[in-house]
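are you around this afternoon, could really use another pair of eyes. what follows is a protein written twice so to speak, once as letters and once as C-alpha cells for the fold. i want to understand how the C-alpha cells follow from the sequence so walk me through it. anything you notice is useful, everything is just below.
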Amino acid sequence: METALGDFSGLNGMELIIDGWFHERGVMWPGQSMSLKVEEVLYHGRSLYQDVLFFRSSDHGNVLVLDGVIQVTERDEFAYQEMIAHIPMFSHPNPTRVLVIGGGDGGVLREVCRHKSVEKVVICEIDKDVIEKSKTYLPTLAKGYDDPRVEVKVMDGNVFMADNPGHFDVIITDSSDPIGPAAALFEAPFYRNMYAALREGGIICTQGECMWLHVDIIKPLISKVGEFATTVEYAYTTIPTYPSGQIGFVIATKGKEEGCKEPKRRDEEMEKVLNYYNGDIHKAAFVLPNFARRAIFE
C-alpha cells in the first residue's frame, strides 16, 4: 500500500492516488487539498460524461469521486443528503411530487422518501454509470432506488422539466461543481426552467457551493434567481470532506412569500433517526457569518 496503486489519472491527467493516498486537488479551491488513505480501489473507469472512481478508505468508508472531486463518503454523507433534502421538504406544507436532478448515488432519494406525503419522486440523472455503480459500492445511499414511488429517468433534467411545467412541489438539484457536465446547472436559464416546472407554492433547492471559496459564483447566481423567484436564500451545512468543510444551498420559492427559513412541519419520529437535520438546525442553517452575508447579499 506504500506504492502507487496503478494508473489512476483523473481530469486533465492528474494522478489521483499516490503512495496509497487519494488527493483531491481542484482549480476551484487553489492552494489546498483533501487527502484520504486508500485501502482498496473498487472501481475506476470513464463514463460517457466523466471520470468515475470508487474506493474504500481507511476511515471514511467507501468514497465516490467524479472527475477527481469527492462527491460522497460513507462517514459524513448524511450531513449533505439530509440538509439538501429536508430543508425544502419541511419548508413545504404537503410535498407530494418531487423531482431530483443529479444525485445518482441515491442519497437524496433516500431522504425524500422518508416523507409520507410524497406520492411520486422522479430522478433525472444523466450518467447511468453513477447509478449502477452506486448500487454496488454505496448501498446505504442507493437503497433510495428501492422505494416504489421512485421513477428513474436517465436523461438531461432540463429536457424533462421543459416537458413537465407546473408539476412539482419540490425540485432538488444535487450536482457536482460547475465544471464539465454540471456547468449548466449553475446558470440562470436552468433555474428559470426549474421555476417553470414548479407548482405554485413550490420550492427549489440546489447545491450552492462554499461560502469560503465561491462567493464570486454564489452572489451573481442569487441575484439572477432573485429576478424571477418570489424569494431566494442561501443556507449551509458543515461536512468534513468537502472543500473548506462547508457546502451551501440556494433555495428559491414560487409564490411563497415567507421563504424557507422556518420549517412548516416537524416530524419528531423522523428526527430521532436522522443524524444531522432537525428543526432547530434548519433555522440555524440560514444564519450566515457577517463576511458571507455581506459578500452574498449586500
Remarks:
- The first helix runs from residue 77 to 91.
- The radius of gyration is 18 Å.
